[in-house]
Amino acid sequence: MLLSFAAEVAAAGGSVELAVGDRVMVLHGADDRATLKVDLGFPVVRDVVADLTDRSGTRDTTALHGARAITLDLVFFDERRHALLDELRSYCHPAQRPVLTLQHPEWDSPRRVVLRADSQSAPLSADGGWALEVSASWVAPSGLLEGVDEMAATIMASGGAGSVGIRYPVRYPVRYTPGGGGGVVTVSNPGSAPASPVARLYGPHTGPQITRDGGGTLAFPGLAIAAGDYLEVDFAARTARVNGLPDASRYGALDFAGATWWDLPPGESAVRFTPDAYSGAAQAVLTYRPAYL
């Protein structure tokens, strides 16, 4: 995918930024100090194929992709063009993970991608008067772009030996989400690729399990989460931690025999939170970013 960011794109609200922590470089925006073309490439397909032994053809079980290459071609129109080049190069160290954020007028919302410099990512330049041409390349390890803004859904617990109402005493505020009753909500991923969520399963409950209809279940039989605590399940990192703490892993409590680390495909999905036992305050909060190929 090739995106062109010229003056008219900036005027229409288009922008491109690189960031590492609190440090941000605006590569293209309202100041119009550069023209820019961004080649977002496409993720490398991870082929899984084998020749059929008794007939022509191959057995193809390919399902995953790898990283993608992203290239920026810029022309700086600025008397500080060489200083801008040095600034750009400061985002090319292989130990850094800069975040590229893009807003194109034809997109509904901005997108971002985490980068890693490749072995030949230092920009090459050719000075031609007041214009400085620059080319820089990075690798996006995840292979996907994602929405800048996180989306969230709250699912009240249901099923199992749940109680009616709330057990006292409780901690306030207690959050309720319209449409989140019955232990199931419809979650929307407006992107074009599966998104990996993070689920916080708030207590009090025992034996939490969270399911995407048609996608699978993660269950933790016998695991007890107290009121005021939560089990954080990161579907991308494959971790399960009480209150998200690295030294409070509960990965060993997972029912490995029936476990499926599911994701949210494009479109709508029904997600359920059904612990074995819970009080009325138990709920799951699902956060995710829309993903794009």
Q: What secondary-structure arrangement, pairings included, does this model have?
A:
Blueprint: E1 2-5, H1 7-11, E2 15-20, E3 23-28, E4 34-39, E5 49-51, E6 58-60, E7 68-77, H2 81-89, E8 99-103, E9 111-114, E10 116-117, E11 124-128, E12 131-140, E13 145-147, E14 151-156, E15 161-162, E16 184-189, E17 198-202, E18 205-206, E19 209-212, E20 216-219, E21 224-225, E22 230-234, E23 239-242, E24 267-273, E25 277-278, E26 283-288, E27 291-292
Give a written overview of the molecule.
- With 293 residues, this protein is mainly β.
- The chain has helices at residues 7-11, 81-89, and strands spanning 2-5, 15-20, 23-28, 34-39, 49-51, 58-60, 68-77, 99-103, 111-114, 116-117, 124-128, 131-140, 145-147, 151-156, 161-162, 184-189, 198-202, 205-206, 209-212, 216-219, 224-225, 230-234, 239-242, 267-273, 277-278, 283-288, 291-292.
- The protein has two domains: 2-145, Elongation Factor Tu (Ef-tu), domain 3 (Beta Barrel), CATH 2.40.30.200; 151-292, Sandwich (Jelly Rolls), CATH 2.60.120.860.
- The protein contains two helices and 27 strands.
- Strands 1, 4, 7, 10, 11 and 12 form a six-stranded antiparallel sheet that branches. Strands 3-2-8-9-13-27 form a six-stranded antiparallel sheet, with no helix packed on it.
- A hairpin with a 4-residue loop joins strand 22 and strand 23.
- The radius of gyration is 24 Å and the shape is globular.
- Residues 7-11, 121-125 and 161-181 have low confidence and may be disordered.
